[in-house]
Amino acid sequence: MNSRGYSISTGTRARTLRQRIERQAVATTCAVIGMAIFSRGFLQNARVLPAPPWATLWVPLLLIGAYGVIRRLLSQRHP
Question: Fewer CB under 10 Å: which end of the chain, C or N?
Answer without folding.
Answer: C
